[in-house]
Prior knowledge:
217 residues, alpha/beta, five-stranded parallel β-sheet, 40% helix, 22% strand, binds calcium ion
Amino acid sequence: MAEILIVEDEPSINELIRRNLGLKGHHCTQAFDGNEAITFLCQKNFDLVILDIMLPGADGYEVFDQVHGIPVIFLTAKSGLSDKLRVLGRGADDYITKPFQMLELAARVEAVLRRTKKSETYFELDHVRLDYGRRMIFVDEKPVDCTPKEYELFETLVKNRNIALSREKLLDLVWGYDFGGGTRTVDVHIQRLRAKLGLDERIVTVYKLGYRLEAPV
Ligand code: CA
């Protein structure tokens, strides 16, 4: 069961979503305008937000700015590519274009919940623990002093464990396409991670390519 906030100003659509997700065993809170949604977000913890863009009061983008660390599925009446790119670029987990099939929305809700459920809060390898929720790394239960980029690099290696990642790919995933620095940046950060985490044997260099985190499957 998940706590879901539905933000949709059209009462019939809001109610349709609530009824269907209720049948799946989820508990839904309904907001019919953006300001109401922001109030709920301050009062309560949700596992997922379903968020319309065109709303009275604050619009969907403004509501989204108040969502911290909760997955969001945008509902958008606009099918234009720029809107889809805009919501995904801002870090939304998914979007669905109206009019939509309830079955499709329900399937996407389950997929997002599966990806983000609390069982995925930790990753452990040898003496190292990655805490996704707090964005921290622990070695022998002690927090490691690492920079945000070092954290993101390790999280990226963990999410793609046992897969060889090129330096260019790591640059794109961690630093972004518009980063001006070279691939040497990746090598420097890998060296620091190995030293800080004591994972020399696990973070392996892939000849002429990049790096791979080796972890038991
Ligand atoms: Ca609307």
